[in-house]
Amino acid sequence: MTKTFLLTTVFLAHFALTPIHAQNTTHSLKTTDMETTDQIEIKKLLFTYRDALNASSVAQVMPLYTTNGVFMPSGAPTSIGTEQVKAAYEFVFTNIALSIEFHLDEIEVVGDHAFARSTSKGSTLIHASGETVAEENRELFVLKKEAGSWKIDRYMFNKMK
To answer: What is the set of domains in the chain, with CATH numbers?
Structure first.
């Protein structure tokens, strides 16, 4: 079996066996007594990512990804690895400016891997037209602990409407 298959199986089994009321739901940087240190660190990472998106800063986004990170934006090609991910964010920030807020719905940690499920809502300024449009997405982050720090390993989002 591959490592990815095993990891997916562990995540799915853990999720399936965890009662809905026991799953952690977070909507801000406020922490609860039920959160683990890893969940708190992941929450900080994701809000740092939100801030980097709102700043249109490739320099702030890139350190948040693993070296072999994968970015899977809605309606665009998948970017794999540092160079492709960097180029994708450069393209995004050249064309739009985001003003969004994340709402974290779930953070699950299994060893040195984790996933987070979130939604985001706000607006997008389209540079070419000057038009501002509503932005609303749901996101799935797969995270990995590297050298003691949580990083984004896989990130996918899609439009909710």
So the answer is: 29-159 (3.10.450.50)
